[in-house]
Amino acid sequence: MLVVDLMHEFELGVWKAVFAHLVRILESINPDVVLELNRRFREIPVFGRSTIRRFASNVSEMKKMAARDFEDILQCCIPCIEGLIPTPYGAQILDLIYSLASWHALAKLRMHTESSRQLLDQWTTIIGRDLRHFQEVVCEAFNTRETDRECAARNRAEARRKAAGGATEPGPQSRGVGRQPRKFNLLRIKVHLLGYYASSVKEHGSTDSYSTQTVRALIVL
């Protein structure tokens, strides 16, 4: 049986996708709001030994970020994004981030009891509800488009396909060089796999026992 992978499925998967779409929402409101988000992250001081590291000058671009960086963003995101999105959607987004942070804290516990495992199961239900609400209600209220970085990456990929003699007919991504509409997508396997964490903890122990993050840290050292 394959065990869950917190680093790739959540930190580099679900949470990264949510944060990327939050940046798109902020850009749809006003590009200056994204600059304010970056400024707030820059003002957060470091905490502890590698607990909260110094944030990059431009967090919204998400350049050269590891799983630990997205973990830090999740832990500090609520005060940084508070007040930047109009009501009632701003409060709903803060609720979503709180739910994701709570679930992540429980999933990353290094020691579990039956009560903490049941709590993780309950929070799994909560984040499923909040993610659906985010997609169906909050995201539909904003006309979100690709960021400049996403648009440039898509154009480069399209140019490589053409240079390699790829498809002669335009594919679903061949929609011009400008920034294209981009919706939040919940139909991804990493969202589905979040439902297996509580049972995986019961059968195999805490997630740090089989996390790929530990192996990657040893490789870096």
Task: Walk me through the structure.
The protein has 221 residues and is mainly α. Helices cover 60% and strands 0% of the residues. It contains 9 helices and no strands. Helix 1 packs across helix 2 and helix 1 packs parallel to helix 3 (67-81). The chain is globular. The two termini are 29 Å apart. Mean pLDDT is 89; it is low at 217-221.
The count of β-strands is 0
Mean pLDDT: 89
* N- to C-terminal distance: 29 Å
Contiguous helical run count: 9
Overall outline: globular
Q: Helix coverage percent of residues? A: 55-70%
Main structural class: mainly alpha
Radius of gyration: 19 Å
Order of helices and strands: HHHHHHHHH
Approximate strand percentage: under 5%
**Unreliable stretches covering 5 or more consecutive residues:** 217-221
Largest sheet: none
How would you sum up this structure in a few lines?
The chain is mostly helical and 221 residues long. It has helices spanning 6-29, 31-42, 67-81, 89-107, 114-138, 148-163, 189-193, 197-204, 212-220. Helix 3 packs antiparallel against helix 4.
Main attributes of the structure:
globular, mainly alpha, 221 residues
Q: Helices and strands in order, then pairings?
A:
Layout (H helix, E strand, L loop, with lengths): L5 H24 L1 H12 L24 H15 L7 H19 L6 H25 L9 H16 L25 H5 L3 H8 L7 H9 L1
